[in-house]
Design brief:
The structure holds two protein chains of two kinds. Chain A is mainly beta. In chain A, the strands form three sheets. Chain A has a three-stranded antiparallel β-sheet. The two termini of chain A are 17 Å apart. Chain A contains one helix and nine strands; from the N terminus they run βββββββββα. The relative contact order of chain B is 0.16. Chain B is α+β, with helices and mostly antiparallel strands. Classes of the chains: A mainly beta, B alpha+beta. The interface between A and B is medium-sized, with 28 and 34 residues. The structure holds FE2/S2 (inorganic) cluster. FE2/S2 (inorganic) cluster (FES) binds next to loops of chain A.
Chain lengths: 120, 311
């Protein structure tokens, strides 16, 4: 299975997030949130409008306490582990989760199939 | 009622430092005491969401906690107090302003306006067939010029019951509906301004109630474009625009923000008086913009002349 290296786990400090633009579209198409050593990856599309990226500045996906993922357009809050919107305009709707892998060397990978399937 | 327009929006935010930096980068001036103002003194106040002086938040968690309108004089303030006191509590605060809640739950303030008269030229253009506006040897644009927001223009609310909201602002406060998107909401202006709108509603489910965006007037389309471009250069992300609206004719450019809502630059809005016949249109992109120029920042490394990654 062909896959693309996203970088090392240490690129994302715990409690932070990072956006990725593998096809150099000019805006990030997905992002990874790190909680402890767990990673959660979602497409960078807010379910409220369905065509809006989330952050107000690159990589700013979380609230100040790193408790929730935030959409800066209208303030929606999402659970980090499930991607479910718990407050705001898309209450109950979900961010689209995507699979990524972490190797035994703490490298983050995403498969080409995933990139294609989710149009990332 | 001689209500002139919004004087101040009060926010209770999650990330105070990020919001203050955003306000400065947007072009507002730090006026001290958590106030960030445009050239005419209208502006925003940025407090932490748990600040005890703030009115309670809406159930949606919206960071906009209060909209303060500027009115012409004390007599207008007294008239609003009398009108609203008929069926609700109207508090008089230490600074002489009053506070009450509208019929759909937004907290409002009213004060004798802090808005200073401005003596500034509008953006001037030269066009064949017309008398030059800028004249000989006058330069139109400079990279060194920093456009400044001139005046707080309007606020847009997500509202579940737009009929109730419109009736309150029309019947109790004398706002006039300029135009309307069918089943979405009215564009309204208060009695003391001819601006196409200072208030607009978007119909939403109750859990969404809050603020969609707010905006300041700039000196013209070049200022909207130049200020917006500068914001992008600082790494802020465009939401919609730049473009030009149909209702209001204003140039627009919206940005996402740490205020939990979008923030717009606008310029060159239509003016209306009592001779205006309100229009109505179906909502949607085709009816909200004459044109849209989609701004996307190219940050991916590798291309020739690529600039460093914004952080
Ligand atoms: S687009 Fe994300 S909350 Fe509205």
């Amino acid at each position: 299975m062909s896959k693309v290296l996203l970088g090392s786990l240490s690129d994302i400090p715990p409690g932070q997030a990072k956006g990725f633009d593998p096809n150099q579209t000019g805006k990030d198409t997905f992002f990874v949130v790190r909680q402890g050593n767990q990673l959660f990856a979602y497409t960078d599309i807010c379910p409220h409008y369905g065509n809006t990226t989330l952050p107000w500045k690159r990589h700013h996906y979380l609230d100040s306490a790193s408790d929730h993922i935030v959409c800066a357009a209208h303030g929606a809050l999402f659970e980090i582990d499930s991607g479910t919107c718990v407050q705001g305009p898309c209450l109950g709707q979900k961010l689209l989760k995507i699979p990524i892998e972490v190797s035994s060397h703490s490298e983050m990978w995403i498969s080409l199939e995933t990139l294609e399937e989710f149009n990332l | 009622m001689n209500i002139i327009g919004p004087d101040k929006l009060v926010f209770g935010v999650d990330d105070v430092d990020a919001c203050k930096q955003f306000a400065l980068d947007y072009g507002l001036k730090d006026a001290g005491d958590n106030h960030y103002v445009a050239l005419d003194g209208t502006g925003i106040e940025i407090l932490a969401k748990d600040d005890a002086s703030l009115p309670a938040p809406l159930q949606s968690g919206s960071m906009l906690r209060k909209t303060i309108y500027g009115v012409a004089d004390q007599a207008t303030l007294d008239a609003i107090t009398e009108e609203l006191s008929k069926d609700r509590d109207v508090k008089t605060l230490d600074d002489g302003s009053i506070e009450a809640t509208d019929d759909v739950g937004f907290v409002l303030g009213f004060q004798v306006t802090v808005r200073q008269p401005l003596e500034l030229a509008a953006e001037a253009i030269n066009a064949p067939g017309a008398e030059p506006q800028r004249g000989v040897n006058k330069i139109g644009v400079s990279k060194d010029f920093t456009p400044k927001p001139r005046s707080l223009s309007h606020v847009v609310y997500f509202v579940p019951d737009i009929e109730k909201a419109e009736a309150f602002y029309a019947e109790r406060l004398g706002f006039v509906t300029t135009d309307r998107f069918t089943d979405t909401g009215p564009f309204m202006r208060p009695g003391g301004t001819q601006d196409h709108h200072t208030l607009f509603f978007l119909k939403t489910p109750p859990f969404m109630q809050g603020v969609e965006h707010f905006t300041f007037h700039m000196g013209g389309p070049t200022e909207v474009s130049q200020a917006g471009y500068a914001l992008m250069e600082k790494g802020y992300q465009s939401f919609w625009g730049p473009g030009r609206h149909i209702f209001g004719s204003n140039w627009f450019w919206y940005f996402k923000s740490p205020f939990g809502c979008n923030i717009e630059y606008d310029a060159d809005m239509d003016l209306h008086d009592e001779n205006w016949e309100p229009r109505e249109a179906q909502p949607g992109a085709d009816n909200s913009q004459v044109f849209l120029l989609k701004a996307t920042e190219k940050w991916a490394p590798g291309g020739p002349g690529e600039k460093p990654l914004p952080r």
